[in-house]
Design goal:
Elements (H helix, E strand, L loop, with lengths): L5 E8 L6 E12 L5 E14 L4 E8 L1 H4 L8 E10 L5 E10 L6 E3 L4 E2 L4 E8 L9 E7 L2 E7 L7 E8 L5 E10 L6 E10 L2
Parallel strand pairs: 8-14
Antiparallel strand pairs: 1-4, 2-3, 2-5, 5-6, 7-9, 9-12, 10-11, 10-13, 13-14
């Protein structure tokens, strides 16, 4: 989840009946959806001794403080482990994993029944998932081909808040409502819902 530390486990298994020494070089970078690296956020090396048929777990932690400011709107991190088995003429194994971080969830609550030409009040709640305050918070609400920009108060670390949004549907049928939440530390956290508008 975006805003939390990332905990990973690299699992190494020795499938042979000989002892193995393995050097592991780990790195992680924030990337774009095209896989182009933006910034390296982790670099670590360790050596592991594996007995015959033995498995070992290597725990890796990427704190939010390391990746937060380098994350793009794609919210992707590429983790790589290059495992070199010693004394085997440089036998190497590359393990890769792309992590897509989950956004803070925007929650949109609708009344049970929405009727044409009758005013409706929606509850939109949004959150700051980070361990630090955020400011310059803005909600963009898109509905019936119109966009409303709402400037919000700053949010304390991990704070959740809500607003009420009122509108009057002009025709029956499905209506798409989209909410886009941005602030000074992250942008374009989206939430959307389809509203079924009943005839009067």
């Amino acid at each position: 989840v975006f805003g939390k530390d990332i905990n990973l486990i690299l699992v190494l298994n020795n499938l042979t009946s000989d002892r193995k020494s393995v050097r592991v070089d780990m790195s992680a970078s924030t990337i774009l959806y095209t896989r182009r690296a933006v910034a390296e956020v982790l670099k670590a090396a360790t050596s592991v001794e594996l007995g015959p048929k033995q498995g070992k777990h290597i725990r890796v932690k990427i704190p939010y403080t390391h990746y937060g400011k380098y994350l793009t709107t794609d919210k992707r991190i590429q983790v790589t482990a290059l495992c070199e088995v010693m004394r085997t003429n440089g036998l190497k194994l590359l393990v890769e994993k792309t992590i897509i971080l989950e956004d803070t969830n925007i929650i949109i609550k609708l009344p049970r029944r929405v009727v044409v030409n009758r005013a409706v009040s929606l509850e939109i709640s949004y959150a700051n998932p980070l361990p630090e305050p955020v400011s310059r918070c803005v909600l963009l609400v898109t509905l019936m081909n119109q966009q409303v920009k709402i400037n919000l108060a700053r949010l304390a670390p991990r704070e959740r808040s809500k607003i009420y949004f009122e509108f009057t549907p002009r025709r029956a049928g499905p209506l798409q409502l989209q909410v886009d939440f941005s602030c000074d530390k992250f942008s374009h956290v989206k939430g959307f819902v389809t509203i079924a508008v009943a005839p009067a």
